[in-house]
């Protein structure tokens, strides 16, 4: 009996279109779906507790072998809305930055922007739990995912990392991709791609099944998150990984 492929995905709203088909049972005979937050899914892939995951791309340099197995990703062409540095003061007045413990790629991206683009001198502070209440005065915070969409209602200064990366490089950004730690069967990959595409062609259904009054999810899925892993996104990913290795 063939062993099922262990598939890890993120629990955020931004993944809902990609995993819609999987949740509807499109790969149920060949794969099992596990849901958690990004850095946890990343750790599971690194430790071979899953075979493929929608993981932060910053883990790629840590992997012994890796394969991007899907034509789809969590990316942005400009503003992403849900990966932002939030502050009560302008950039040049920020002294401390709280780092989101649920993220790897976003933390790495933020540090690159701070060093190479914004060129500001700040102290970094790791976090745990609900740290957003500490965003105050000259202490800013990186917040990602659904919590970032909520934080948009609170913080007067919002620095969108997708938009800032595009201003810096002229390229889109890939936050997460479907990456396997081993070669997977081509038939599985083909069916997996179809499962990804299923939800992307049914955005209205995905929005209806995931009510979120804080932010317009139709706008989020069609204007903020860019799901196709095209050549331009691959260029953006390549540049990010080069900068990541140097940093």
Question: How would you describe what is shown here?
Answer:
- The structure is a single chain.
- By secondary structure, this protein is α/β, with parallel strands linked by helices.
- The chain has two domains: 130 residues, 3-Layer(aba) Sandwich (D-Maltodextrin-Binding Protein, domain 2), CATH 3.40.190; 87 residues, Periplasmic binding protein-like II (D-Maltodextrin-Binding Protein, domain 2), CATH 3.40.190.
- The chain is built from nine helices and eleven strands.
- The strands form two sheets. A six-stranded mixed β-sheet has the order 2-1-3-10-4-11. Strands 7-6-8-5-9 form a five-stranded mixed β-sheet.
- Helix 1 crosses helix 6 and helix 3 crosses helix 5.
- It is globular, with a radius of gyration of 18 Å.
- The termini are far apart.
- The model has no long low-confidence stretch (mean pLDDT 95).
SSE inventory with pairings:
Blueprint (H helix, E strand, L loop, with lengths): L4 E6 L5 H8 L7 E6 L1 H9 L5 E5 L10 E10 L6 E5 L8 E4 L5 H14 L4 E4 L12 E6 L1 H6 L5 E4 H9 L3 E8 L5 H15 L2 H7 L7 H8 L1 E3 L2 H16 L1
Parallel strand pairs: 1-2, 1-3, 6-7, 6-8
Antiparallel strand pairs: 3-10, 4-10, 4-11, 5-8, 5-9
Helix pairs in contact: 1-6, 3-5
Radius of gyration: 18 Å
CATH superfamily of the largest domain: Periplasmic binding protein-like II
* Strand arrangement across the biggest beta sheet: 2-1-3-10-4-11
**Shape label:** globular
**Uncertain runs:** none
Compute the average pLDDT. 95
CATH architecture of the largest domain: 3-Layer(aba) Sandwich
Count the E strands.
11
Largest sheet: 6 strands, mixed
| Helix content range | 25-40%
- What is the tally of helical segments? 9
Give the termini separation. Answer: 45 Å
CATH class of the largest domain: Alpha Beta
CATH topology title of the largest domain: D-Maltodextrin-Binding Protein, domain 2
What is the element string, with H for helices and E for strands? Answer: EHEHEEEEHEEHEHEHHHEH
- Strand content is 15-25%
Overall domain count: 2
Class inferred from helices and paired strands: alpha/beta
